[in-house]
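In this supplementary section we document a worked example of the pipeline. Step one takes a protein sequence of length 244 as its only input; no multiple sequence alignment statistics are reported here. Step two produces a three-dimensional model, which step three serialises into structure tokens for compact storage. The input and output of this example are shown verbatim.
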Amino acid sequence: MRLVYRWSTVSNWGDRLSVHLLRHWSQIPVGTWDVADECDILGVGSTVGHVLPEWNGVILGAGALLPSERVPWAALTLGVRGKLTRERMHGSPASVVLGDPGLIADELVERPKRTHRLGILPHWSDTDLMKRREFWRYDPLFISPGWNEIDVIRMIGSCDKLITSSLHGMILADAFGIPRRFEEAPRLRYEGGTFKHEDYSSAIGHEFKVGVTSAPRRFVVNDVRDRLIDMYEQYGQMVRDGMA
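The serialised model returned by step three reads:
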């Protein structure tokens, strides 16, 4: 059984997606563990800086949190979150898949009916977003980042629009084709600013802006989704063939 790293300092739905994606798309036995250097896989999340440079596991879509972080040189890197993380790889190979695996997490649930005009999903550290009264007139669906990850995916998919201070939330909105508006969380300046958001946005060819409702071009998102699915299926075949 392969172990995928799960950041578990706080209960955050997006950091629990990797195990579901690996079981669904790679079809291999996989569990989670919260000690990065003891794991086999880095998946969803800003986790490449959590392991030593000589860590020799597999990277499937993980990204850097800070511009100073480097992708482990000994890792088998099949995909990273975006161009900014790729620039921090040894040699920056053009063949690596770009995109956050959260873009295919909508496939883990049946397509929900759109029953809410607006959803509000804060970053795990953000206690202010749900208090902003200008959004209340839309009778929004409030979604907690601490809830079960599959339930959160369904809730996002039930909304016509999403306001979020969570990168995971922004990505799932793009997966469902839902317009989204990103708002800064107070903690953002301690987490590398907007580096990870710009990194993700570079993979889908969409300019990142704060406080603006937008949606990336669907055909670009679908191309990235197809490559991410191929990456997971490739890794599953490599495991079955004894190559990883």
